[in-house]
Design brief:
Order of helices and strands: HEEEEHEEHEEHEEHHEHEHHHH
Largest sheet: 8 strands, mixed
Bound molecules: ligand LOHRUJSQ
Helix content: 40-55%
Shape: globular
CATH class: Alpha Beta
CATH superfamily: 2-enoyl-CoA Hydratase, Chain A, domain 1
Structural class: alpha/beta
Radius of gyration: 18 Å
Length: about 290
């Protein structure tokens, strides 16, 4: 697909794609925002959302806001029926929530941040479009949440990449809707073990346990996603969308019902001295690992 080669080319521009710009070429509207590149191939009705927030595509408030707006625009575009979510940052899908957003900030900031995390998940999980994660790099915690919120996951078969909800390793707890989303994917028992131990699975183990649906060589991830997308789009939208909603509505409703208390829980948890200390220690350990 042309769209794929042009997006791969766009990766080279990462260093100077900071301004928002919109262009129309070959009938492919391209939107290059600060954090996410969106290209819609109109004839096919498929958009590729390419996360491009180096160094690790961490989910900052700014990133999450842009993600939700971009997805909503696609959702409202009748010409778009499917979205492939992938990364333009080499070796990283997403490092998950931006830990800096959870350290040393005000209660108001934490509430705003958490609402944006909820919004990203609500929009992605309930999307009427076919959503496919093309996982071309490491995918811990919030990155894994994004991936398991899609309809289908294809991961690069690179032994260096891992995926999972590793929150307990940071001394924090994945909220109930993270738990529900992964349990809907891999089942109760595997989720129990995975969450308690904060497991990060290698690509091959992720396939065995069902966090991902397919492994392909790294350079084929986008083509494989495009091929799977064609299969899913062959199903009439209406029937597929109702089936999706039937499976996901109870999980979505649970957060919608408890949205405000979930925000309060997050704020009271993240403002605890012990949690602040755990998060700061973890950030320092990431820096030390580098040196
Ligand atoms: C308190 C209440 C909690 C309620 C529940 C909240 C649910 C939480 C969900 C989450 O998503 S928490 C985030 C969990 N994420 C991780 O544990 C991933 C941490 N990162 C990594 O393991 C690695 O960075 C990587 C993704 C495997 C990439 O490794 P690589 O060697 O390529 O890069 P690094 O040198 O480690 O990182 C580069 C740079 O980026 C910073 N960074 C990494 N991850 C994050 C992050 N999640 N948030 C903010 N910043 C991050 C890292 O510190 C480096 O910074 P510099 O040293 O260059 O300044």
């Amino acid at each position: 697909m042309m769209i794929l080669s042009r997006l791969l080319g766009c990766q080279e521009q990462l260093g100077f794609l900071h301004q928002s710009k919109e262009e129309l070429t070959d009938s492919h509207p391209v939107v290059c925002n600060r954090n996410i590149l969106v290209e819609l191939e109109e004839g096919v009705g498929v958009a590729v959302m390419k996360m491009k927030s180096p160094p690790v595509n961490s989910l900052s408030l700014d990133f999450l806001t842009e993600f939700s707006i971009s997805l909503e625009k696609l959702e409202n575009d009748r010409g778009c029926r499917g979205v492939i979510l992938t990364s333009a940052v080499p070796k990283i899908f997403s490092a998950g929530l931006d830990i800096k957003e959870m350290c040393g900030k005000s209660a108001e900031h934490y509430a705003e941040f958490w609402r944006a995390v909820q919004e990203m998940w609500l929009k992605l999980y309930k999307s009427n479009m076919v959503t496919i994660a093309a996982i071309n790099g490491n995918c811990p915690a919030g990155g894994c949440l994004m991936a398991v919120s899609c309809d289908y996951r294809i991961m690069a078969e690179n032994p260096k990449y891992s995926i999972g909800l590793n929150e307990t390793q940071l001394g924090i707890v994945a909220p109930f809707w993270f738990k529900d989303t992964i349990a809907n994917t891999i089942g109760h028992r595997a989720t129990e073990r995975s969450l308690q131990l904060g497991l990060l699975y290698s690509a091959s183990d992720a396939l065995k346990i069902g966090i991902v649906d397919e492994l392909v060589p790294e350079e084929k991830v986008l083509n494989a996603a495009a091929a799977t997308m064609s299969q899913w789009l062959a199903i009439p939208d209406y029937a597929r969308q109702i089936s999706k909603s039937m499976m996901r509505k109870p999980t979505l409703d649970r957060l919608l019902t408890h949205r405000e208390s979930d925000i309060q829980n997050f704020v009271s948890f993240v403002t605890k001295d012990s949690i602040q200390k755990s998060l700061q220690t973890y950030m320092e350990s990431l820096k030390q690992r580098k040196g």
